[in-house]
Amino acid sequence: MGRLGIGRRFTRVVASIAMVLAGFTSFGAALLFNADPAHALGTSVASPSVTLSTTAAGATNVTYTVSFATSSSGALAAGSGTITLAAAPGTVFSSGGSYTIEDVTTGTQCGLDNWVTSDGGDTVTLTGACAIAAGDSVLVTATTVSNPTTTSTGNTVAVSTSSDTTPSQTNAYAITAAQAVTAPSVHLSTSAAGATNVSYDVRFSTSSTGALAPNYSTVTLAAPAGTDFTSGSSYTIEDVTTATQCGYYNAVTSDGGAAVTLNDGGGCTIANGDTVLVTASAVTNPATPQRMTP
Question: What is the pTM assigned to this prediction?
Fold first, then answer.
């Protein structure tokens, strides 16, 4: 066989190999472009947003409210579908916290089967107890969250689900410097040393970042040593600005009874800058005269 014949056969073999490779390439391209995008690339929830009851650094018992919509392929099954919130480093979603999931589209309070924190507490994964359809709007509320202890800007919460696996970032928020209440004052029904059944009226205004979420936020009164906020004392919390009687659901004394911490109760939200009146009844004054400051 001449060199010309061998060359022609070699050319045909090369061409055949090229056609086979081209076939594999076309098949791969078909797989790539015809694949379900949800499985090929992973989908994200839509329009995630977050609000904090307070942005103060180091604040505890903070409520984080996160809203989003599931994608067109992002349905969640009851009892197995999960929602994950990943907040700024230093945030702590309490392992003993309270969480709610609401399908806003259907008006369904889903309840929870389980929740697990990770990454030092700045991430929480919730397992919902109800089915949520694709495209539904969802509202997740996390209470008793602790904010990072240092100030920062540009923070977001990354939201993902077991169906929409690619995290989507919420609007940015800042963690701001903690502030004190303003204009605190106190009035006693009697200032006599050793008097019992005394009423203490304490008035103050929350700061520009000092909003209090219902049920979990606290107000602490610390009086001079010898004062006794006893277990028999009664209390009221009033948002004077809105004329709302907030009530309380728990009172814990400390420092030998000279301090008391009240949980804001009754589902009452106290906004930034609101004037608050706390009344403590059946208090015992110190046995020895001393000067009190608010």
Answer: 0.78
